[in-house]
Amino acid sequence: MQLSEPMTMITDYLLGGWTFYLAFKLIRKGMRASQRSIILWGLSFVATGIAALIGGTSHGFALYFGTVTKAVIWTATLISIGFASLFLLSAAIITTFKKPLRDWLIAATALKFVLFAIWIVSHSEFKYVIYDYVPAMIGVLILKLYGKYSHGDKSATWIISGILVSFGAAAVQQSGFTLHEHFNHNDLYHVIQMGAIYILYKGGILLLDAGRDFLREQE
């Protein structure tokens, strides 16, 4: 069987498996501590893992997919990324605001995702994912900066660092920088992103829903 981009497929699968493993730990932690923010953070990892696995399959087996199949796979990847930004931003909102503002902001975030998903079905250019994802990440950055300097949010430094590393990984991917003919910019992006995911995980386990002041067991 001939693979079109074997190294990109492998690094995508590694990224997906790593992210799923950390997602399991986050969701388990969130359920034990009754922290919705941690559960949502874990769900964002699930969505990211799905996007990585689908992307790896697309890169590896592109020669065996027809036009329609490729379009479906691509759209599923983009929507998975949209889910990731939805869950990340919702988790950050829950750690920052109490009712009723919290519920209104989450509703607005969900509406943004629905509009994005409807649009992306017929407009599959990657730039629309950027238009959705980058503002969401900037929103998380702003909320975590506020949390860090207003009440010493312990998750903030980790999450801010993870987002910045993730942005750096994306910059490497867009630059087209290649280490080797068999290890291109996409492969390097996946490796850097695995590090970013771990940093975001370290912040995720420290999330605390706004209004919850009990101590939680650290991992």
Describe the structure.
- The chain is mainly alpha-helical and 219 residues long.
- The chain has seven helices and no strands.
What labels describe this entry?
7 helices; mainly alpha; 219 residues
Helix content: over 70%
Task: Give the oligomeric state of the chains in this entry, treating copies of one chain as homo and distinct chains as hetero.
Answer: single chain
N-to-C series of helices and strands:
HHHHHHH
Mean pLDDT: 90
Estimate the strand proportion.
under 5%
Label the overall shape.
globular
Number of helices: 7
Low-confidence stretches: 213-219
Number of domains: 1
The major pleated sheet works out as: none
Number of strands: 0
Structural class: mainly alpha
Q: Gap between N and C termini, in Å?
A: 43 Å
Nearest-angstrom radius of gyration? 18 Å
